[in-house]
């Protein structure tokens, strides 16, 4: 039995070897090549032989042109070229690249072929790199491991108006709805928009849910309307005049009407406890009501007063209005959604103050900083007991704090932002815009429940973090709307933001254009960006066009009001060009810190701030020093012009307190010589007559031999005069009697 087993083992040996050879034959990489190394070795040999063969071809130039003249060589080159192009086309088709290599266009064919080859090489080499990485164990397509809660930022590319980045979903273009010929809603307002350059005064005249009564200034609204002396004055200015006449306190005019209520607001315990998130219904299952009449608005206010919370959002338009317009208000409850046409009900929106200021009702906003100001400006509405989900998102340290991210994070809803830049003045509203506006508040109450739960869990059940969100939301409710006020220095703030440096003419043009734009925008009730965009205003200020057509050339596209007031703008530019180029206003170059292209030292401004009085007796020594230093920093061109006019710069006499050394007696004696009388400046310039000048001053005088040793003095033989100059004399002698140009003219001790 054992021997038979051994025979069986021995007999099975050749069979196994035959199987191994068959397996090796079957596992060939490709016909004729066992593995990759054999294929690469053969490929390198083929490439090397092709390179050697190409080196033996005729070189470009006279040699190639000579061979090209033979028909046989020409036919051979064309046939081989077609074969190469066909082979390259097949390779490019295999990799999914464009393969129109056999283009016969003589003008652009060669360039197009070269571009195709370059693009194909990039694609093929990229795929080779990916395959090599995968062979090494590196997978480029694998998503990186990210911590929980981290969301990669959205990259905005040139196709910003495309929706749907996944390969399965088809890209869709955003629609920017804008009606060019829309009727201006400001014309229908019962109370005209106040664009005057005066502070904003609250519109409130009834204060529901008041703990502290409204000041009497706001209560008697009818009396303010019936004042005949203020009919020709803007409303805000008339209020200010009335306040001055009646001696009412100015703090009551500009104070927050509900500041006392917000300061003493206490959050109930049930709002600081952990809630149970209520499931929100879908948009299709929720009723939608459009409110555009006074009766519907009153009915809505009654419904809201019976609730414990509701969500609010606004849609705003600012391009065709100086202050801006609130075009739409969305309100959502647990069971119903409402859309209010605030353009139609602008004068009646104050009715909602009864629900908005009720401290027992929670008003849920997202990013309410601007909404609070818009409600005050347009409707006189105020919010008490506000909860801002944006502040809650910041407290939770979420990846992003936008409403888009919260909808995706808590509700798994992808918000449609195609109509974010739409013109909300359009009436009637398209269905797409209605659905977009409705989505902003429909899920907000569910998000309100979820963030409260997470805030308590994040703080281990303690209400401290949730209480901080309530406090921040309450501080947002205390914000007051501030009207943009134009001052003479307003343009400097814009210049600093733009980080532009102008010369005096350019700065004057920028100041005049800024004032013109602000005035016209208030007058026409248009935004400053519509009247003259900032980048166009800077372009005009830098170029300073000499002709009206140059102003048009600086604007692309040309704003309608710029084309209408082109001549007026040209006059402003001409006025700026007439300014002296080097005349800098004191306050301007102090603020800019630049003076004729170089920076003055910091101590110069300290001395310049010293107030110097005309009476020198009352001025201190430090002030007089500062005055002399300031006077020394004069415009060099101004100094030159003053000298040309014949004026001489006078020396300021030293003060008693100055530490100036007293002159020596020798200098005093030399200064006692008679001086020439000053020549009065003449109007016409006359050249100096050098024939009348005494040239003996430059001849020098002979001196007796001095017994003191001088290494620079040469020995002279007897009987020969010493012609050396007066090099050993003291430096205290007058300039006319000394040889100061000698190299080693040291003074005596």
TrEMBL record:
Residues 503-583 form the HRDC domain. GO terms for biological process: DNA repair; exonucleolytic trimming to generate mature 3'-end of 5.8S rRNA from tricistronic rRNA transcript (SSU-rRNA, 5.8S rRNA, LSU-rRNA); histone mRNA catabolic process; nuclear polyadenylation-dependent antisense transcript catabolic process; nuclear polyadenylation-dependent CUT catabolic process; nuclear polyadenylation-dependent rRNA catabolic process; nuclear polyadenylation-dependent snoRNA catabolic process; nuclear polyadenylation-dependent snRNA catabolic process. It comes from the Eukaryota. This is Exosome complex component 10. GO terms for molecular function: 3'-5'-RNA exonuclease activity; metal ion binding; nucleotide binding; single-stranded RNA binding. The gene is EXOSC10. Belongs to the exosome component 10/RRP6 family. Residues 1-26, 637-749 are annotated as: Disordered. It is found in: Cytoplasm; Nucleus, Nucleolus; Nucleus, Nucleoplasm. InterPro entries: 3'-5'_exonuclease_dom, Exosome-assoc_fac_Rrp6_N, HRDC-like_sf, HRDC_dom, HRDC_dom_sf, RNaseH-like_sf, RNaseH_sf, Rrp6-like. PROSITE patterns: HRDC (PS50967). Its cofactor is Mg(2+). Residues 690-711, 717-731 have a biased composition (Polar residues). Pfam families: DNA_pol_A_exo1 (PF01612), HRDC (PF00570), PMC2NT (PF08066). One of its GO terms (cellular component) is cytoplasm.
